[in-house]
Amino acid sequence: MSQNRQLQELYYEDYMQKGRCRHQDWSQRWQNKIIGWHLSQVNPYLNENYQVYLKNNDNPHSSIFVPLCGKSLDMIWLAQKGHQVVGVEVVEQPCHDFFKENEITYKVQDLQGVEGKILTSQDPKINITIYNCDYFALTSSLLGFRFDSVWDRAAFVAISPDLHSNYAKHLASLMAPSGRGLLIAVDYDINEHIHPGPPFYTPDTLVHSIFSPFTSVQRLSSFLLTASPPTTLFYTLPFTSKILIELEDVLRQMHERYIAVSAAFLDMS
Ligand SMILES: C[S@@+](CC[C@H](N)C(=O)[O-])C[C@H]1O[C@@H](n2cnc3c(N)ncnc32)[C@H](O)[C@@H]1O
């Protein structure tokens, strides 16, 4: 192992130890208004890529999941397009702030069997529900359906590195077989700059290794948002393609077996 590589692994281990952000830390951020990630406008990448990667032409009311939603205005933009929008957010304050600040009337109910609340828009033109609970507590049986699309902005990168694999597995369990999504990750030179996160270090290799058991992963672009790192990585996750890839694998294996059996049969004759 080269010295460089050893150094990198040492740093990464160190990073995994430091890279923790728990519910309490998020609560404090919201309480102290340290919410630099919150945009006062719709995310421009959502705007640019929605038509191709999220919109379902067969169903204008398709469901869109916004994990770790904070009080993101993207939810309103998506709901105004006619979608059924569902967010999940563990801290109570931004859930209420979202409806209040946007003057959307809403009702609050207890969640059944899970610690948390459900906040639902009462505006017939805005179909938005926020589950105020832990992301991992939101299951397809609690929801009663699976999502058509997911818009992951500042969600995967906000999850502590030790939970990245569980995050992807859980996301896959919430998606419909034809589901698809957009994901933003961040990369920088970890040897140069150990940023304790969030946003956590999620380079291209990590995004591929974490998500590829569940979906094919296609990088759409990578760019610097500011003059210096981190680099923003932008992906599409066509969960359907994973199913097609698996189907192709099965068909290829069947074809290979067929060729082998045919060859054996010809040998015998
Ligand atoms: C970086 S912010 C991003 C918010 C939003 N996606 C946006 O783009 O504005 C991450 C949010 O996830 C919430 N959060 C962190 N861990 C969570 C978890 N396990 N379950 C649900 N929400 C969580 C935090 O409270 C915070 O509001």
From TrEMBL:
GO terms for biological process: methylation. The lineage of its organism: Eukaryota, Metazoa, Placozoa, Uniplacotomia, Trichoplacea. This is thiopurine S-methyltransferase. One of its GO terms (cellular component) is cytoplasm. It comes from the Eukaryota. It is found in: Cytoplasm. InterPro entries: SAM-dependent_MTases_sf (IPR029063), TPMT (IPR008854). It comes from Trichoplax adhaerens. Its EC number is 2.1.1.67. It is an enzyme of class 2 (transferase). Belongs to the class I-like SAM-binding methyltransferase superfamily. TPMT family. Keywords: Cytoplasm, Methyltransferase, S-adenosyl-L-methionine, Transferase. The keyword Translocase does not apply. GO terms for molecular function: thiopurine S-methyltransferase activity. It catalyses: S-adenosyl-L-methionine + a thiopurine = S-adenosyl-L-homocysteine + a thiopurine S-methylether.
